[in-house]
Design goal:
alpha+beta; 3-stranded antiparallel β-sheet; binds zinc ion
C-alpha cells in the first residue's frame, strides 16, 4: 500500500524517533513492505518511517542490489573526507540543496528478524543512509545544506509555517 508522505513542516519530521523493540512482527513486516512500495513509486533513494507518519527508527534504502530495510541504525564515520552533492527529499517536493557529507561510513543496524547487520558504505549509498538516519533524529537536509539550489522561494514559504514550541 502506498502511504502518503508527510511534507515539511509536518511536526513529526522534527521528532526524535523511538527505537523498534519488537522484531519479526506482522505489523513491522507490513510497514516495511509499504515503505518499500511507497519509496519505489515515488522514485526515492530512501525513506524513513517518520516520513510516513511512524516515529520509529526504521529506514528503507534503495540500492543496486535491492531494497534494504535498516532498523535502529547507527552510523559511524570512517574518514574525515567529506563530499558535496545535491540532495532532495520526498518530504520537500521540488526542493534541492548542496549538502556536504562524510565519504565513507560504517553502519550497524538490525534486520527485520532482529539480526545484527554491519557493513561499510561510501559515496552515494553512504549519503542516502546518512540522510535517512538524520530523519530519525529530526534532522532535515535543509539544516545541513550549504546552499539551496532549487525551490528557494517555495522553501521560504514552507519555513514560515514551521512553528517551534
Ligand atoms: Zn529525506
Amino acid at each position: 500500500m502506498i502511504i502518503p508522505i508527510k511534507i515539511y513542516p509536518d511536526k513529526i519530521l522534527r521528532l526524535k524517533a523511538k527505537p523498534v523493540e519488537s522484531f519479526n512482527t506482522d505489523e513491522l513486516k507490513q510497514l516495511i513492505a509499504d515503505m518499500k512500495e511507497t519509496m519505489l513509486k515515488k522514485d526515492g533513494m530512501g525513506l524513513a518511517a517518520p516520513q510516513v507518519g511512524q516515529s520509529i527508527r526504521l529506514v528503507v534504502i534503495n540500492t543496486k542490489a535491492g531494497v534494504l530495510a535498516l532498523i535502529n541504525p547507527q552510523v559511524m564515520p570512517l574518514t574525515l573526507r567529506r563530499e558535496k552533492m545535491e540532495e532532495g527529499c520526498l518530504s520537500f517536493p521540488k526542493i534541492f540543496g548542496l549538502v556536504k557529507r562524510c565519504r565513507k561510513i560504517k553502519i550497524k543496524a538490525f534486520n527485520f528478524e532482529g539480526k545484527p547487520v554491519n557493513f561499510k558504505a561510501s559515496g552515494l549509498l553512504a549519503r542516502v543512509i546518512m540522510h535517512e538516519v538524520d530523519h530519525l533524529n529530526g534532522i532535515l537536509f535543509i539544516d545541513r545544506a550549504e546552499k539551496i539550489t532549487g525551490g528557494v522561494d517555495k522553501l521560504n514559504e514552507m519555513k514560515k509555517n514551521e512553528v517551534s514550541d
